[in-house]
Amino acid sequence: MTNVGENVKRIKFFVMIALIFILAACGNSGIANPLNYEVSDFSYVNQNGEDFSLKDLEGKVWIADMIFTQCDTVCPPMTAHMAKLQGMVKEEGLDVEFVSFSVDPEVDTPEMLKEYAEGYSDDLSNWHLLTGYTLNEITVFAKDSFAALVAKPEGEDQVVHMTKFYLVDQNGTVLKDYDGVSDTPYEEIIADIKKVQ
């Protein structure tokens, strides 16, 4: 009887360990130490002058960043890296959306964003450049959704903002961020996208 009791205890132990591993894997979609920021609900305007909201991204994996068209420093390389990543994702046959939030919305019109983006990519079908809100709104949204700083010093035409790319899952949860300016880890981002799709 003792052996049977010990065997039952062992089986229960191994089942419990297996469940822990399964639940851990489900909890973060395979991304180690996910950020788990929740993107706030939004409804803005894209480069085509059309309404675009968080609802349009439901069930989709997406990459987000923050840029503005008059940026003299970090935005051109960030946008070039985003365009390169977009091309690599397409080659891999992955279904991913790209979202760039303007951090200078009172200057960046949909037309300006479209012209800006067309300088980097000839396919904007899955790339949404957003405006149609106030500077204060994007400042709060960036902080609440991405733990990101946005600030436009008074009398300046340049905006201080984060230079990360953010991986967001199908539920609007920010899982991870990456350097968007230099040494952008394209292969790592693609590998992480595959983990959550």
TrEMBL record:
<dbReference type="Pfam" id="PF02630">
    <property type="entry name" value="SCO1-SenC"/>
</dbReference>
<feature type="domain" description="Thioredoxin">
    <location>
        <begin position="33"/>
        <end position="197"/>
    </location>
</feature>
<dbReference type="InterPro" id="IPR003782">
    <property type="entry name" value="SCO1/SenC"/>
</dbReference>
<dbReference type="InterPro" id="IPR013766">
    <property type="entry name" value="Thioredoxin_domain"/>
</dbReference>
<protein>
    <submittedName>
        <fullName>SCO family protein</fullName>
    </submittedName>
</protein>
<dbReference type="InterPro" id="IPR036249">
    <property type="entry name" value="Thioredoxin-like_sf"/>
</dbReference>
<comment type="similarity">
    <text>Belongs to the SCO1/2 family.</text>
</comment>
<keyword id="KW-0186">Copper</keyword>
